[in-house]
Specification:
heterotrimer, A mainly alpha (about 100), B mainly alpha (about 525), C mainly alpha (about 625), B: about 525 residues, about 5% strand, C: 24 helices, 2 strands, transmembrane helix (chain B), NADH dehydrogenase activity (chain B), transmembrane (chain B), ubiquinone binding (chain B)
Chain lengths: ~100, ~525, ~625
């Protein structure tokens, strides 16, 4: 099978994820879209690893997974605590970081 | 490997800062004593360093050297010459007094409601220790980049000390006080950051030059100096001048030299007296110290090139600072402008390039630290009692609080360089050192001694003498804790005024080294020269 | 013996330390401690004096090196003492008169709650003044010089609750500091010229200096003169002395009459070798002296405040001394001789004035005195003897010393000699006038007493014996010191080895000078008697002539200072404060404001919405990727 197809899939997933992040307001959904983007990258890494015939890409993919897992822990915690205090998970409501 | 004395001297206050900050919020007194204990421990180590330092030995002693980031030639290099070891000792000496004087400055207000955010005592004392650690390290560093890091890093704790723990004695009310405080803190930070960034460019420039010529770049002062001495390193005249200006600008802001002085009156006016002492007696000294160490040693030719301009600026500082001090209505701002004048003397002495000038300037740094601390801390006690820092709100204090008035007068007399008190010796040395090379400048600088008498005595007359003003009647005299602060400082002023030899003996050889770096020798007496 | 010199200074210094830090528990014994230590210092001085007398005239100098004070490169300042005949004279005068005034103060300050501190300051003054005269180099002398300035500041302003006293003290210190510039510049010049500032280095070198060094040495001379002007209240730095009378009267007697104000004369005499080598500087010195002796005398004529009249007189008498010192070797000895006799009679006069004030509810206006001789016989007699001594009544101290100065002035020769001599004679006449005026207004005529501000009628009475005994001793000195010094030219032989001495050849004989002086004396006394003795003294001062009005205001010198220096200075500092805020600070703040404006616009981009941040990130990445691809393609 042509490895380019994997790359197309990866690009598609990434685009879906990016669009989700930009368009959706629910923090959980935004978060899931971020995960989607990360996994799209993972797919690309693994494909490239196969293409080049070395293990670098696979190692990076594992690395990404670890970072993603850590990020999920922190991110979900933040979202939950925001939801608890504001009864809303909309990212547009949480704009207090501006100057 | 020998005992890393210098690292320990700096590490003790750093650890102390962490420990103090970790003390639970309710145990304020514990935090205070912890901090004081750590500062005293630092003093012990600094004293040991002072004793172990051999004035006739190598130029840099007690050295430590470790690679840090090999790829960039960064090294962790410490070492002290006679000037640095004295400055470290001065810093370590002053901090306990600063803490004792500010013992209650960070207590919660008595009428504070529990919901209000009060000044955390732990933070106050931890920040002071942090400043101490950074200042000590910047005196000890012999690696230019290492020095730069601490030179810049000390801004942050000082920023919080100014902005977070301002003077409670403010006529304009709490909100206005907070506004002016944050203005002063931001001004302090911006001025010094601007200076620091320009210096950073020069530091990187220096690294590039060394990398270009020596193959591997280095920040190490000793490596640069020895490469230079052996002829391996040759900095182009124009490059050297630019690099000099980059360094000098940062130090001139910190020192502060006219016209870069305007942050000092704000910073000193808005902060509490102990913090003001920390700024003017300790932090600012890094600026003049660095001129002596980095500007003159790294860029001797450019220093000589810039001398005329620097001397004129220093002279303007002396006269201008003194004149502005005469015109002030606020006690602390008056002392701040007096300090501007005194820093002018220090810089004048450094750039006069004579033994007397530079030894005098170094001694001046020490003496100015002690005398300003004495004057300013007593002024702080005075201001706290009255709740105002306007001169016009005082009058006749000597009638109700004679000891306070007496110590204030002694601090003032030290500031106006009365013989018998320490600053006289250093001021006269600076004047003689300047005069022997530049007679006209020396004579103009002596005007400073008349103006100093004017601002000190006018201040004393308006605050202490005359009939007792309303609001002064019930003023209490100095308490035991306050006497504990003032008495040793005054004793030290007297001792160094009568017998400064122990200090000059340590300073002189280092000054000699510095002068030979810039290839200058003292002018010979006119009669001797003819023979 | 050498250590005794150190102890001489240390004794009063110890007293000052103990009294000023001792706290209230010493209140009851403080004045005794102070007096005893002053006396101890006098005893040390006397022992040294006797020891000195036992040696050959040219081997009397004692040297003692204590420790090195400031060693930096070629600059070696030592703490070392040199006691020769000149210093010895001063030591005896300072400790002797000083002790007497300590005793006097016990009575005078009896009711002052801060008496302990007063004695502490007095002891501090003694220590500093002794240090000044026994120092063996100019740098240490400078320390004493400023030390007496400090003591003077503290004592003038002793009654600090009075704003006028605090102002006067500040003024004295600052005007003195102007003079101190002179001394410090002189020291720096010495250092750069001779490589030293020790007497035994500078003075011989100055003597042998070639003509090429002439300008420098003249410069040193001028600077030393400036210093002397500040400390000795000579024109143009004389303005502080009149105000200094705000201090307690014993202070005026000790510091502002007998000792500290004569430090300038000491400095010039001590630096004789420098002045001998700098004729221009000498001319300046005699000019200053001659102008001041007339200036002070004229001011003294118009003052109604008894202490201020005496202050004018002090200024004038020191003018005589400075003039004599400026005459060179023909005058040094007589300058010092007049200094010593003046120390006796002027201290006596001030103590007398203090005694009068003590009895008159601290009234100082002579127009409210009158007829006091019956009520204060001892004060009257001692004051009267001092009066006769100062006007130069034949046989009394002032006669011998002043006459010699006038002779020396004529002996200067040429037009200069005539001008100086005539000025000195005119001064003698005015002295006779104003002192007679003081005498008549205070002790003679009808009583013009008035109740003080609280309505207390004055009840003049003689002062306690602690006050009168010092006055009596000083009166003895006023009477006999001059004759004692002059027999066999005793004083000349005593000082000659140090200062050098030469008899000038006067164009007119000594007898003629004495005769002229007597005529001046009689004229001065006569005019005063005509105005103040023959007819009653008005209790309110008449408007007076132009000169009188000018003299009352110190010949407008203060007004000049006020307008030019004080007002000018105030304007200068005020405009500088404004400029510092608006210009120096303004430039920086302007930069900050424009940066702030820019950032205000930029911050609109930061709206806080995560999505907009994400878009900018995505856009940024896209741009970067596109740029990379483009770079590849090219």
């Amino acid at each position: 099978m042509n490895p380019a197809n994997y790359l197309y899939l990866s690009a598609l997933l990434f685009t879906i994820g990016a669009a989700g992040v930009l368009i959706r307001r629910n923090a959980i959904v935004v978060f899931m879209c971020v995960e989607l983007m990360l996994n799209a990258c993972n797919l690309a890494f693994v494909t490239f690893s196969r293409l080049h015939g070395n293990l670098d890409g696979q190692v990076i993919a594992f690395f990404t997974m670890v970072v993603a897992a850590a990020e999920v822990v922190v991110g979900l915690a933040i979202i939950v605590s925001i939801f608890r205090s504001r009864h809303s998970a909309s990212v547009d409501d949480a704009n207090l970081m501006k100057l | 490997m020998s005992f890393p004395l210098l690292t320990v001297t700096a590490a003790v206050p750093a650890v102390g800062a962490v420990v103090t900050a970790a003390v639970p919020a309710a145990q304020r007194t514990t935090a205070k004593y912890t901090a004081l204990l750590f500062s005293l421990a630092t003093l012990v180590f600094a004293a040991v360093a002072l004793v172990r330092f051999d004035p006739d030995g190598n130029r840099y002693q007690l050295t430590e050297s470790h690679a840090w980031v090999k790829d960039f030639g960064l090294r962790y290099e410490l070492g002290v010459d006679g000037i640095a070891v004295v400055m470290v000792a001065l810093t370590a000496l002053l901090i306990p007094f600063v803490m004792l004087a500010g013992w209650h400055d960070a207590d919660p207000l008595e009428d504070a409601n529990p919901n209000r955010r009060w000044r955390p005592t732990q933070g106050f004392f931890a920040l002071i220790l942090l400043v101490e650690a950074m200042v000590v390290l910047s005196f000890e560093a012999t690696d230019v980049f290492l020095f730069y890091i601490f030179f810049e890093a000390m801004l942050i704790p000082v920023y919080f000390l100014i902005g977070g723990f301002g003077d409670r004695a403010h006529a304009a009310g709490e909100d206005e006080a907070a506004r002016q405080r944050s203005y002063a803190a931001v001004k302090f930070l911006l001025y010094n950051l601007a200076g620091g960034l320009i210096m950073l460019a020069a530091v990187i420039g220096l690294y590039t030059v060394t990398a270009h010529q020596l193959g591997t770049g280095t920040f190490s002062l000793q490596e640069i100096l020895s490469a230079r001495a052996s002829g391996k390193l040759h900095i182009e005249t124009s490059t050297e001048r630019w690099l000099f200006l980059g360094f000098f600008f940062a130090f001139a802001v910190k020192a502060p030299l006219w016209p870069l002085h305007t942050w000092l009156p704000n910073a000193m006016g808005e902060s509490t007296a102990p913090v003001a002492v920390l700024i003017t007696a300790v932090v600012d000294k890094v600026g003049t110290f660095a001129m002596l160490r980095y500007c003159l040693q790294l860029f001797p030719e450019a220093s000589k090139w810039a001398t005329p301009v620097v001397l004129v600026l220093a002279l303007i500082s002396i006269v201008y600072g003194a004149l502005l001090a005469v015109g002030q209505r606020d006690i602390k701002r008056l002392i701040a402008y007096a300090s501007v004048s005194h820093f002018g003397f220090i810089i004048l002495g450094i750039f006069a390039m004579t033994t007397q000038g530079q030894s005098g300037a170094t001694l001046y740094m020490v003496n100015h630290g002690i005398s300003t601390a004495a004057l300013l801390l007593v002024a702080g006690f005075l201001i706290t009692r009255r709740g105002s820092r306007l001169i016009a709100d005082f009058g006749g204090v000597q009638k109700v609080a004679p000891i306070l008035a007496g110590t204030f007068l002694i601090g003032g007399l030290a500031t106006l360089s009365l013989p018998g008190l320490a600053p006289f010796v250093s001021e006269f040395l600076v004047l003689v050192g300047t005069f022997s090379r530049y007679p006209v400048l020396g004579i103009i600088a002596t005007l400073g001694i008349v103006l100093a008498a004017l601002y000190v005595l006018v201040l004393y007359q308006r605050t202490m003498t005359g009939p007792v003003k309303a609001g002064i009647e019930g003023m209490s005299d100095l308490k035991a804790r306050e006497l504990l602060v003032v008495t040793p400082l005054i004793a030290l002023l007297l001792f160094l005024g009568v017998y400064p030899k122990p200090v000059t003996d340590i300073i002189n050889p280092s000054v000699h080294h510095t002068l030979s770096d810039v290839h200058k020798t003292d002018p010979k007496p006119a009669l001797e020269a003819k023979k | 013996m050498e250590t005794l010199i150190g102890l001489l200074v240390a004794a009063p210094l110890l007293g000052a330390g103990v009294l000023l830090t001792g706290g209230k528990r010493l209140d009851r014994v403080g004045h005794w401690i102070g007096t005893l230590l002053a006396l101890l210092s006098f005893v040390f001085g006397a022992v040294l004096f006797i020891n000195m007398l036992g040696k050959a005239a040219d081997a009397r100098t004692l040297n003692s090196h204590l420790f090195t004070w400031v060693p930096v490169g070629g600059f070696q300042a030592d703490v070392g003492f040199q006691l020769d005949q000149l210093s010895m004279t001063f030591v005896l005068l300072i400790t002797g008169v000083g002790t007497l005034i300590h005793i006097y103060s016990i009575g005078y300050m009896a009711h002052d709650e801060r008496r302990r501190r007063f004695f502490g300051y007095l002891n501090l003054f003694l220590a500093a003044m002794l240090l000044l005269v026994v120092a063996d180099n100019y740098f240490l002398l400078y320390a004493g010089w400023e030390g007496v300035g400090l003591a003077s500041y503290l004592l003038i302003g002793f009654w600090q609750h009075k704003p006028s006293a605090a102002t006067a003290a500040k003024k004295a210190f600052i005007v003195n500091r102007v003079g101190d510039i002179g001394l410090s510049v002189a020291i720096m010049l010495m250092f750069t010229t001779f490589g030293s500032f020790a007497f035994n280095q500078v003075l011989p070198q100055a003597q042998q200096a070639s003509t090429t060094q002439h300008a420098t040495i003249t410069g040193i001379g001028f600077m030393l003169l400036l210093a002397a002007c500040g400390k000795s209240a000579q024109v143009p730095l004389q303005s502080w002395l009149g105000d200094a009378m705000e201090g307690p009267t014993p202070v005026s007697a000790l510091i502002h009459a007998a000792t500290m104000v004569t430090a300038g004369v000491y400095l010039i005499t001590r630096s004789g070798a420098i002045f001998n080598a700098a004729p221009d500087a000498q001319t300046a010195v005699v000019t200053v002296g001659a102008v001041t002796l007339l200036f002070g005398a004229i001011v003294g004529c118009a003052k109604d405040d008894i202490k201020k009249a005496l202050a004018g007189s002090t200024m004038s008498q020191i003018g005589y001394m400075i003039m004599a010192a400026g005459l060179g070797p023909i005058g040094y000895v007589f300058a010092i001789m007049h200094l010593v006799t003046h120390g006796f009679f002027k201290a006596g006069l001030f103590l007398g004035a203090g005694s009068v004030m003590h009895g008159m509810n601290d009234e100082v206006d002579m127009r409210r005195y009158g007829g006091l001789r019956k009520y204060m016989p001892v004060t009257f007699v001692t004051f009267g003897l001092g009066y006769l001594a100062i006007i130069g009544f034949p046989g009394l101290s002032g006669f011998f010393s002043k006459d010699k100065i006038i002779e020396a002035a004529f002996a200067k020769g040429g037009t200069e000699g005539w001008i100086l001599g005539s000025a000195a004679l005119l001064g003698a006449a005015i002295t006779a006038f104003y002192m007679t005026r003081v005498m008549l207004m205070t002790f003679f005529g009808e009583q013009r007493w008035q109740p003080d501000a609280e309505g207390h009628e004055p009840h003049p009475h003689e002062s306690p014996s602690s006050m009168t005994i010092p006055m009596i001793i000083l009166a003895f000195g006023s009477v006999f010191a001059g004759a004692f010094f002059s027999i066999n030219s005793r004083f000349v032989h005593w000082l000659e080895p140090v200062t050098g001495h030469s008899e000038g050849d006067s164009p007119i004989s000594a007898g003629t000078v004495t005769g002229a002086t007597m005529v001046c004396l009689v004229v001065g006394v006569g005019i005063a008697w005509l105005i103040y003795g023959r007819r009653p003294v008005p209790a309110v001062a008449p408007r007076g002539s132009l000169l009188t009005r000018a003299a009352r205001r110190d010949l407008y010198q203060d007004d000049f200072n006020h307008v030019v220096l004080v007002r000018g200075g105030e304007h200068l500092t005020r405009s500088l404060v404004y400029l510092d805020h608006s210009l120096v600070d303004g430039v920086v703040n302007g930069t900050a404001a424009s940066v702030g404006g820019l950032s205000g616009r930029l911050r609109k981009l930061q709206n806080g919405y995560v999505r907009s941040y994400a878009v900018s990130m995505l856009g940024g990445t896209a741009v970067l990727v596109a740029a990379t691809l483009l770079m590849r393609a090219v």
